[in-house]
Specification:
With 345 residues, this protein is mainly beta. The chain has a domain of 174 residues. The protein is 13% helix and 37% strand. Strands 1, 2, 3, 4, 5, 6, 13, 14, 15, 16 and 17 form an 11-stranded antiparallel beta sheet that branches. It has a two-stranded antiparallel sheet with strand order 7-12. A two-stranded antiparallel ribbon has the order 8-11. Strand 15 and strand 16 form a beta hairpin. The longest helix is centred in the C-terminal third of the chain and has 17 residues. It is elongated. The model has no long low-confidence stretch (mean pLDDT 86).
Length: 345
């Protein structure tokens, strides 16, 4: 049965956050060394990358001299915050004899004391529940307990003006100017209301003609997941490429509220942890933080210096699948015309 709001929705402030003491109970894997990269692996990765670009020549990939391989690592700090938000509103519905959970059964609990079991912690969701012992029966405010309301069409008169004769009771015939009695209203000028059919009243829709309403406090509980991530790396690699790489897990922790990381060898990771956690606590202060999870993932990066003919430059191999970032590949056209023209379909 549908319900109607009778007061504006009220947002309920969350209780003060409880931040647990640091106890070191997290999954901390030793930061492994990046896999060893050889000239053969580099050349195979470049050949596979160049082969996927239709107008890139393979000669440079085959003939280039690998001058140096400099290993490094990128770190991805990931933070997820699960929050709960509660809003309340007084709603009423027709009272048709249903069971009413009134204050006779006990005092209503405070909004945050109402037990609502969330779905999967890392999943958005929403439920609406009735606050226990908040219901009561009241008189219908639209019909004053009568169960009927004045007809909106005839305003309670039971009759409306006849539109055929304009309330004159007479109509003109088509062949002459002789006036005849209006057949629609029998010459009276008014006719029975077509909405209420005469009584001048209609059943009250608010209470379904019962005259009574059930009113109770309805609380909407919604859960949301907010995620942020920060890539920490010290090369000229575009961060968007590293965002698409999952990497290998080096650290993970899950608690009702986590503390910033402060032990990582790269201080930029520790700083990213502090900054993102502060952002989440400020941005979602109107919601109760139910659970937080953060992790650090490792993405290996290799800067490759090479020489081909007179061209000396460098490129990158990254990730555990040996992906290649080679924006300055020296042989970008294998057919003697520009790469732009080759790519026109």
């Amino acid at each position: 049965m549908s319900t109607l709001h009778c007061k504006p929705v009220t947002s309920i402030d969350p209780p003060p956050p409880l931040l647990a003491a640091e106890d070191g109970s997290f999954s901390h894997r030793p930061i492994e060394d990046v896999p060893h990269m050889t000239d053969t692996i580099v050349r195979d990765a470049v050949l596979a990358h160049v082969s996927s670009n239709i107008c890139w020549g393979l000669t440079a990939a085959r003939e280039m001299t690998i001058l140096d391989i400099i290993p490094s690592s990128a770190f991805k700090y990931e933070l997820e915050t699960c929050t709960e938000r509660r809003t309340a509103i007084w709603e009423f519905e027709p009272y048709t004899g249903q069971l009413i959970d009134t204050s006779n059964f006990g005092a209503s609990p405070k909004p945050w004391d109402v037990l609502v079991v969330p779905p999967n912690p890392y999943q958005n969701g929403q439920v609406t529940v009735e606050v226990p012992h908040s219901a009561r029966i009241i008189n219908c405010h639209d019909c004053s307990t009568l169960g009927r309301r004045k007809c909106w069409s005839c305003f309670g008169n039971g009759e409306i003006a006849c539109t055929t004769c304009n309330e004159s009771g007479l109509t003109l015939t088509n062949s002459s100017s002789v006036s005849n009695s209006c057949l629609q209203c029998n010459g009276v000028g008014r006719r029975r209301c077509v909405v209420c059919l005469g009584p001048g009243q209609l059943p009250c829709k608010t209470c379904l003609a019962r005259g009574k309403l059930k009113i109770c406090l309805k609380m909407t509980v919604s859960w949301k997941i907010y995620g942020s991530e920060r890539v920490v790396e010290h090369t000229s690699m575009p961060p968007i490429l590293l965002n698409a790489i999952q990497g290998r897990l080096a650290f993970q922790e899950e608690k009702a509220a986590v503390w910033p990381i402060n032990f990582f060898p790269d201080e930029a990771v520790n700083h990213a942890s502090r900054e993102l956690l502060d952002q989440h606590r400020l941005r979602y202060s109107a919601e109760k933080i139910m659970l937080q999870r953060h992790a650090v993932r490792l993405v290996p990066i290799y800067q490759i210096a090479y020489l081909w003919r007179e061209h000396r430059d460098y490129f990158y191999i990254y990730g555990y699948d040996n992906l290649v970032y080679f924006p300055g590949y020296p042989q970008r056209s294998c057919c003697g015309i520009s790469e732009y023209l080759c790519n026109i379909s």
